[in-house]
Hints:
This protein has 233 residues and is of the alpha/beta class. 45% of the residues lie in helices and 16% in strands. The protein has a seven-stranded parallel beta sheet, sandwiched between helices.
Amino acid sequence: MTARTFVFVVCSLSGHAGKTTAARLLGDYFLASRRTFRGFDTDAHEPDFARRFPDEAIVADISTIQGQMALIDPLLENDSIPKIIDLWHRSFEAFFTLIDHTGFITEARSRGVEPILLYVDDGSPRAADVAARIGERYPGLQVIMVQTQMTSPEAADEPGGPALRSFKIGRIDPLLQATIDKPGFSLSQFMRAPPSDMSIVLRAGLRDWVWRVFSQFKSFELRMTLSESEHLG
């Protein structure tokens, strides 16, 4: 029996919830640890995730058959390379309709591929309910709330619900935000080798902010590794 390949679906019903930032942090986490991933950006109009990772990510417009194939078929490859989907909020319903129509969840698990849903909390009261309903719709699907203070200071203080795990992305100083928003700025390259011409104050602040998120991803991976060992055993 081979190890599972993980597919991370990063989504939210709302725009400007911090979804692309969450997907970006996950991608940079893998690159910073000298691994790779395959990324998919379903926003064909402003594909910021794909632009951030030109070597790893593609744009998959799921309003077309070609785009659906470009997204779904690679996700079913059990190649030990994690997959990350930055699911555009306007593609939310279409994506889950596609998942149901193709029987993706069952097919994926039969091939040793494990989908994981990261639902980004937009700060609204409905967020945890939406995530919980998705979990009920797909029994056994691991659903994780991403609570971010970047766009909603209250969001990270609210529990994601008793049955949901969560990641937290803390508040970021506007100057640090402006730094990471610069075209071509790579968080993974920064973590491996911070620019020598960057203020040491900015360097320390950004490293701390990124590491707080990366450490959560690392802990999650360790839990999954333990689970994988039990699964293979």
